[in-house]
Specification:
The protein is mainly α. The chain has two domains: about 5-80, Arc Repressor Mutant, subunit A (Orthogonal Bundle), CATH 1.10.10.10; about 95-245, Four Helix Bundle (Hemerythrin (Met), subunit A), CATH 1.20.120. Helix content is about 65%, strand content about 5%. A hairpin with a 3-residue loop joins strand 1 (about 70-75) and strand 2 (about 80). The protein is globular.
Length: about 250
């Protein structure tokens, strides 16, 4: 490891959210070419010394890069930048969503995708699509009524909208989210009173039913408005949580 290499890593500052920001910093250095294909990364100990983060944080950041195909590891030799680190596919993995700010970024992406998809679904949905969406909506209602998070049911309902576009690329893109699109650890239902949980469930049902009704009725403009409203309100709730807790 040269002095130049060590200097490169000494530029990493300890961020407020250690996991995702260390991974982001390393990713940026790889994508910019500061870390070149085949180059050996500093040891875990060196990264810890340069950044002040724990070994666990370093390992989680490296695991994120490895899952994205940006680095490879060799037993006894360490981690190396992949020979071709340009990602060939897009994915969202658990370590990407370790902060509220990251969840908000995913919601921004979803808004762009689902706004268009909801409009197309309203124009193209078939009777089978309507039945599928109704089934997914009923399952979500049951999950919320039983006091659950409804993460899997929520994902299934939103994906049924993508399917109704009759464009398989929408569904394939949405599959990169999985039910990580709203990580359970941020729902914080366990912190709510019974009354707050009841209001939360009612709000979720109301917003999802508005989306379904617009698509079922073939109202393109209303479908777009409903999905934008739902995702915008979700983002606002996460922003409130971030501001109230000081988390980011």
């Amino acid at each position: 490891m040269t002095d130049k290499d060590n200097a490169l890593f000494s530029t990493i500052r300890q961020p407020s959210n250690l996991r995702s920001n260390l991974a982001d910093t390393l990713t940026a250095q790889i994508e910019s070419g500061d870390l070149k294909p085949g180059q050996r990364l500093p040891t875990e100990q060196a990264i810890m010394a340069a950044t002040g983060v724990s070994r666990t944080i370093v390992r989680e950041a490296l695991a994120t890069l490895r899952a994205k195909g940006l680095i490879t590891t060799h037993q006894g030799l360490g981690a190396f930048v992949s020979d071709d680190p340009t990602p060939r596919s897009f994915s969202i993995i658990p370590n990407d969503l370790q902060s509220i700010d990251e969840v908000l970024r995913v919601l921004e992406l979803r808004m762009g995708v689902e706004y268009e998809a909801a409009g197309l679904a309203a124009l193209r949905r078939t009777p089978e699509d309507i039945d599928r969406m109704q089934d997914r909506l009923d399952a979500l209602d049951r999950a919320l009524e039983e006091g659950g998070y409804g993460a899997e049911e929520d994902y299934a309902f939103h994906r049924s909208i993508l399917v109704a576009t009759q464009n398989s690329y929408y569904g394939r893109l949405f599959d990169t989210f999985g039910n990580l699109m709203v990580p359970r650890q941020w729902a914080r239902l366990d912190k709510m009173t019974a009354a707050e949980r009841k209001r939360h469930a009612a709000r979720m049902r109301r917003e999802h039913h508005a989306i379904f009704t617009a698509i079922r009725d073939g109202n393109e403009a209303a479908a777009r408005r409903a999905i934008r409203s739902h995702l915008s309100k979700s983002a606002a709730r996460f922003e409130e949580l971030r501001d109230a807790t000081g988390l980011s």
